[in-house]
Every structure is written in C-alpha cells, then in structure tokens.
Amino acid sequence: MTTYAAPRTVAEAVALLAATPGAALVAGGTDLVVGVRSGKQGWPGALVAIHGVEELCGIEEPVGGGLRLGALVTHDELAGHAAVRRHFAALADASAIVGSPATRGTGTVGGNLANASPAMELGSPLLVHGAEVELAGPAGTRRIAVSAFLAGPGRTTARPGELVVAVHLPAPGDPGAPGAPAGPGAAGSAYVRLQYRRAMEIAVVGAAALVTLADDGTVSAARVALTAVASTCVEVPGLAAALAGRAPTDEAIAAAAALAAATATPISDVRASDAYRLAQVPVAVRRALAAAVARARGDHAAAPIPSSNQWSP
Ligand SMILES: Cc1cc2nc3c(=O)[nH]c(=O)nc-3n(C[C@H](O)[C@H](O)[C@H](O)COP(=O)(O)OP(=O)(O)OC[C@H]3O[C@@H](n4cnc5c(N)ncnc54)[C@H](O)[C@@H]3O)c2cc1C
Question: What distance in Å separates the CA atoms of residue 1 and residue 248, rounded to the nearest whole number?
Fold first, then answer.
C-alpha cells in the first residue's frame, strides 16, 4: 500500500521525507505516474505530493538580473514568460515542445531535472545558461551547478531526503531590450531537437547553444550542450575556444558543430542507431548556433524545430 501526504511547506516536505524511508516526491506526476502505469517502476511505499507548496511556485526576477525558477514552475509557464523568452530563449524553445498541452501544463522544472532522462528537454538549455539547482534537505540548503546535479540516466547527485527547491539562472546579455546598455555583449540562445513527429515526442538528438557577440560582431563567448547523445545532457568542452574572436560565419559554425560531434557518445535504442544520432549531432548544433547568433543580433528568430522529414545535413 502506498501512503500519501501533501505538505504545505518545504520544511514539512523535508521532515516527511526524513520520517518516511522509501518515500518519493511527486510534483506534476507526468514522469512518475506514467512510469508506474507503464510498468517501468512500482508504486513507492509513500508519496510526498508537493504540488501545494507555495514556496516552490513562481518565476522571480531578482535585483541584479537573472531568474529564479521555483521547482513547481510548469513548462507552460516557462514557455510563455516574457523574461524567459527574451533572455533565456533556449529554455522557452525547449519547454514549448515538451509533450502535449496537458503535459506542459502539469510537468514541472523540478520533475524534469530530478527525473534526469538523457533526453530531457531542459537539461541542455540549463547547462548553456550556467544554471544552478537549489536543494533543501535534512542538512539545510545548498546550490550546485546543473552539470554537477545530473549524474546519469535517472540519476542525480541529490542526497537522500533532498528536494529541488529552485533553479537559478545568471543574467546573460540582453540582445533586444530597447536602449540596452553596452556591456559584455549581446547574447542569444536556442534549443533544437530532432523529432520524428511534430508533437508528443522526445528528442532523438538535441542541442542548445548560447552565443555572446562583441560590439564588432565577433563571438566573445559560446556554449553548446547536447541532448540524448550521452548518459545525460552534457556541455561540449572547448567550444568557446573554437569560436571566440571569430565572426560567426557558416564555416566557423560548421567547424564548431564538427567539434561538438566529436564529443558525443550516443547509444543505439529503439528510436535511433548510434551512427544515425552521431550523424545528426552537427546538424542540430549548427542550427542551434545559427539561431542563437540571429537572436544575439536582435532577430527574435523562431526556434528551428524540424521533424525528421525536414532534417538533412
Ligand atoms: C505524454 C508525455 C510527453 C512527454 N514529453 C516530454 C518531452 O517532450 N520532453 C521532456 O523532457 N519530457 C517529457 N515528458 C516527461 C515529463 O513530462 C517531464 O519530465 C516533466 O517535466 C516532469 O515533471 P513532473 O512534475 O510531472 O514530474 P513527476 O512525475 O512529479 O516527478 C518526476 C521525478 O522527479 C521527482 N521529483 C519531482 N519533483 C521533485 C523535486 N522538486 N525535487 C526532487 N525530486 C522531484 C519525482 O520523485 C520523480 O522521481 C513527457 C511526459 C509525458 C507523460
């Protein structure tokens, strides 16, 4: 039998997890409940349902820039939020293509991260934006980089009894704000996934890119992360060095995309062979980089989300 408790505060949730060995958190339930119903996992001995914890809700814009996303923020909230769309467009791109309208209205940031699927939509956008996860547990609260939180398929470095409270995003440059001050540069980001259908699909291959342009139009910073081509979402090392100081020409972007492909270690499964995934990595990276550059220039380009019949190198 599974017991059920619905705490109203983070402190209550932490206390319940500590007092109930084997308890599992449930937020929107779109991974957990679907996993149980499909036979992938059994019901946990106890459910701690956090959907009523006010402290975990909402998107805040702290003084000094950046964003704080409560763990219960849904994909719909992310995709529709003005500051997310303007400053963290890769995240809005990713949230906008999760599942169906029902999935996006129910599934949460905390659930997506804690479920830690290698094909999770938010992983790569959060990596390129340098996001940190805020955790609360019996020993108090702590913050760690998303790159240190994601440990493998279905695995994170959360300690026993810890829950995700929020995700923190540092401020990138602002490409489009009227009268934007001169600063470290104008930034743009984008997320692209290869999908076989237009909806209710998960990534066969995905890529997120964040590009910052200097006043002279050359690249001053760049980050790329890959989805569904390793045991978890991973940032491509050395990518910034490949692009920094160069004009973001088609040739420079193609060279960076080839570098990214060299770091991918995809597996074969029912959805694609390792060879097919590997061949598509540079395509995804090229498209993500090109869209990020366009956005950094102030062109609020729509995210390129091709289905497989539009997907050729
Ligand atoms: C039809 C369908 C389509 C989908 N399509 C996509 C897709 O395109 N892309 C994609 O990435 N995902 C997709 N998903 C998966 C899912 O919707 C997302 O991962 C969603 O964000 C999960 O959030 P949730 O709140 O529903 O998680 P839950 O199911 O409530 O929880 C998932 C896991 O996280 C744990 N958890 C939840 N909240 C916390 C917390 N605050 N702290 C610590 N642990 C926590 C739970 O214990 C559980 O292990 C799809 C799911 C369905 C059913």
Answer: 58
